[in-house]
């Protein structure tokens, strides 16, 4: 394996870093009490990756087993206990644990602990997951879809449920 081809061609470097402070308002606030923070979107990284902080409320929440055909997904647990489906079983993960799921890998995640939990979600390449998260919020607030609309929504966002 070698380094990829250059994507920056300047000779001096540039001032282009971004900063998101921990105390900034959450990007999304779900009715359940959970929140999502957009740390780096596919748009802001030139499609290289997306990074989001997922903060679970105390109630049970999270997706059932599924897979993606176009992106890999990684989880880094910041606090609490998060159940991750690793393709074989639901495994308890805790602060400091890391799980990587390549494209096609069956996975799911949820908080069943009755306590708050938080994790980082990393997608590569940087697909536009924001519209997916925002529509999930609307569904939790009463948005309805027909079966055909729901199937099209999941297909458009590379979610294949088992």
Structure description:
- The protein has 162 residues and is α+β, with helices and mostly antiparallel strands.
- Helices cover 13% and strands 32% of the residues.
- It has two helices and eleven strands; from the N terminus they run ββββββββββααβ.
- The protein has helices at 130-140, 147-156, and strands at residues 28-29, 35-40, 50-56, 66-67, 72-79, 81-85, 90-94, 98-101, 108-110, 117-124, 160-161.
- The strands form three sheets. Strands 1-2-3-10-5-8 form a six-stranded antiparallel beta sheet, covered by helices on one side. A three-stranded antiparallel beta sheet has the order 7-6-9, with no helix packed on it. A two-stranded antiparallel sheet has the order 4-11.
- The N and C termini lie far apart (34 Å).
- The mean pLDDT is 96.
Brief descriptors of the model:
alpha+beta, 162 residues, three-stranded antiparallel β-sheet
Task: Compile the SSE list and pairings.
Layout: E1 28-29, E2 35-40, E3 50-56, E4 66-67, E5 72-79, E6 81-85, E7 90-94, E8 98-101, E9 108-110, E10 117-124, H1 130-140, H2 147-156, E11 160-161
Antiparallel strand pairs: 1-2, 2-3, 3-10, 4-11, 5-8, 5-10, 6-7, 6-9
Low-confidence segments, ≥5 residues, pLDDT <50? none
What is the approximate shape? globular
- Structural class, from helix and strand content? alpha+beta
Count the strands? 11
In round numbers, the mean pLDDT is: 96
Radius of gyration: 17 Å
Quick rundown:
The protein is 13% helix and 32% strand. It has two helices and eleven strands, in the order E-E-E-E-E-E-E-E-E-E-H-H-E. The protein has helices at 130-140, 147-156, and strands at 28-29, 35-40, 50-56, 66-67, 72-79, 81-85, 90-94, 98-101, 108-110, 117-124, 160-161.
């Amino acid at each position: 394996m070698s380094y990829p081809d250059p994507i920056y061609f300047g000779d001096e470097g540039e001032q282009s870093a971004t900063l998101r402070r921990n105390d900034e308002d959450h990007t999304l606030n779900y009715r359940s009490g959970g929140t999502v923070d957009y740390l780096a979107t596919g748009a802001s990284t030139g499609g290289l990756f997306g990074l989001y902080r997922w903060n679970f409320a105390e109630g049970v929440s999270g997706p059932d087993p599924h897979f993606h055909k176009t992106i890999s997904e990684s989880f880094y647990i910041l606090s609490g206990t998060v159940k991750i489906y690793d393709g074989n079983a639901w495994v308890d993960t805790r602060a400091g644990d890391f799980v990587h799921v390549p494209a096609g890998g069956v996975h799911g995640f949820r908080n069943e602990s009755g306590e708050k939990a938080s994790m980082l979600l990393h997608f590569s390449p940087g697909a536009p997951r924001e519209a997916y998260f925002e529509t999930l919020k609307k569904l939790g607030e009463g948005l309805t879809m027909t079966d055909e609309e729901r199937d099209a929504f999941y297909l458009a966002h590379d979610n294949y449920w088992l």
